[in-house]
Write a structure and sequence with these properties.
GO terms for molecular function: ATP binding. Keywords: ATP-binding, Cell membrane, Ion transport, Iron, Iron transport, Membrane, Nucleotide-binding, Transport. The protein is α/β, with parallel strands linked by helices. About 35% of the residues lie in helices and about 30% in strands. The protein is built from ten helices and twelve strands. The strands form three sheets. A six-stranded mixed β-sheet has the order 6-7-8-3-9-10, sandwiched between helices. It has a four-stranded antiparallel β-sheet with strand order 2-1-4-5, covered by helices on one side. Strands 11-12 form a two-stranded antiparallel ribbon.
């Protein structure tokens, strides 16, 4: 198993014409850590993931992976270092599970390598690790939403990187499949020694499954720490703009939130 690597975000600013998104973000994700990014819509969570994946370049500041500045890498080179599971992806009619997962090998194999038939060991391991090997020859568009998300996770694993970024991996899934995906991520992180950062809207899931919660507000880091330290009534009010109470799960000890009503400015 390869050693996990860390991510450093140093003084990052990013925006679009007339719309700043990130305003001086500093963040350090330790090797092997499982971090949840939370915050209101539009606060910059997905943008930060795309910067960490090398898909965007900061206007100011830098993003380093294992001490190396991502801005010096091409997108394909970055994809050999960081795998990003986007929030959604267009359907590809007629593509099988095996064919979709093999797309994750593009960064490593290149266009000519992708023309060769057959899976390599990385694809076979990805299919097995996510538990979808027995679906390998089924059409992706015949699967349920939860099944498709597992397949997309296998595709990200097929990039064979030490960093896995997940943008709202539980969106549109029912509770059964939300828990299934998150438990799979936790298991794979431990088995593969991955550094994982995932954007989550559900604070209950973030508090239960992540070691660390980083909250963004108005393009800056508003809170950063272990769930038990960060998630408080003040956090709910300041970051998520809701009034509520916070208790503890009687068995696991993680914070449990009881939101009452939205706050107005």
């Amino acid at each position: 198993m390869n050693e996990p690597v860390g991510i450093r975000v140093e003084g990052v600013h990013f925006g679009y014409p007339g719309r700043p998104v990130l305003n001086g973000v500093d963040l350090r994700v330790e090797p092997g850590e499982l971090t949840a990014l939370v915050g209101l819509n539009g606060c910059g969570k997905s943008t930060l993931l795309r910067l960490a994946a090398g898909l965007l370049r900061p206007g100011e500041g830098r993003v380093l992976l294992d001490g190396r500045d991502l801005s010096g890498l091409s997108r394909r080179a970055a994809a050999r270092q960081v795998a990003l599971l986007h929030q959604s992806a267009p359907a590809v009619p007629g593509m099988t599970v095996r064919q979709l997962v093999r797309q994750g090998r593009y960064a490593a194999r290149g266009p000519l390598g992708m023309l060769r038939e057959g899976d390599d060991g990385v694809v076979r391991r990805a299919l097995a690790d996510v538990g979808v090997a027995h679906w390998a020859d089924r059409p992706v568009d015949a699967l349920s939403g939860g099944e498709r998300q597992r397949v997309r996770l296998a595709m990200a694993l097929a990039q064979d990187t030490r960093v896995l970024l997940l943008d709202e991996p539980t969106t549109y899934l029912d509770l059964h499949h939300q828990l299934d995906v998150l438990r799979t991520v936790v298991r794979l992180r431990e088995e593969r020694g991955l550094t994982v950062v995932m954007v989550l809207h559900d604070l209950a899931h973030a508090a239960r499954f992540a070691e660390r919660i980083v909250a963004l507000r108005e393009g800056r880091v508003a809170a950063d720490g272990a769930p038990g330290e960060v998630v408080t009534p003040g956090f709910l009010a300041e970051v998520l703009r809701v009034a509520g109470r916070v208790g503890r799960d009687p068995e696991g000890g993680w914070p449990v939130c009881y939101p009452d009503h939205p706050l107005t400015d």
